[in-house]
Write a structure and sequence with these properties.
With about 140 residues, this protein is mainly α. The protein has one domain (about 1-125). Helices cover about 65% and strands about 0% of the residues. The protein has 6 helices and no strands. Helix 2 crosses helix 3 and helix 4 packs across helix 5 (about 80-90). The longest helix is centred in the last third of the chain and has 20 residues, at about 105-125. It starts with a helix and ends in a 14-residue tail after the last helix.
């Protein structure tokens, strides 16, 4: 059930990244109306959704590189939220210096890191049997 919800969220983020970005801005910024997205920001959000869907749909057959990168990003967000937030802000917004962060931005960044780690863990745990493998080859 959780996997299905996360896949649905990833698909939504691929198709409609702006509402996801808007929600994140309302969560993390005191002045979200002043945020000026860089042209590639929507594609970055779509990529995030694609990675989530890719890992959760492919399961154990998914890319080790993708799961490693997402897992590392999750660990960095949990361990070093402030530098990660600063870097992501510089990549996403043209007017980073004008944006005011809400006081709970670090816990929110850690929660995003936890989300990334959850996706990686769920992608490694496949409850569905693989029809191409038998008990002898597994």
């Amino acid at each position: 059930m959780l996997r299905t919800l996360l896949v649905a969220f990833g698909c939504f983020e691929i198709l409609k990244p702006q509402p996801v970005i808007d929600a994140c801005e309302r969560i993390g910024l005191e002045n979200p109306e002043e945020a000026q997205l860089r042209p590639h920001a929507l594609w970055g959000a779509r990529l995030e959704g694609l990675l989530v869907v890719w890992l959760l749909v492919r399961g154990r057959e998914g890319s080790t590189v993708v799961s490693t990168l997402l897992g590392m990003a999750g660990l960095v967000l949990i361990a070093l939220p402030q530098p990660a937030v600063e870097l992501s802000q510089r990549l996403v917004y043209e007017n980073t210096d004008e944006l005011e962060l809400k006081p709970w931005i670090e816990p929110a960044a850690r929660a995003l890191g936890g989300f990334y780690l959850l996706v990686v863990v769920l992608s490694k745990r496949s409850n569905e049997p693989n029809p191409g493998k038998t008990a002898e080859t597994a």
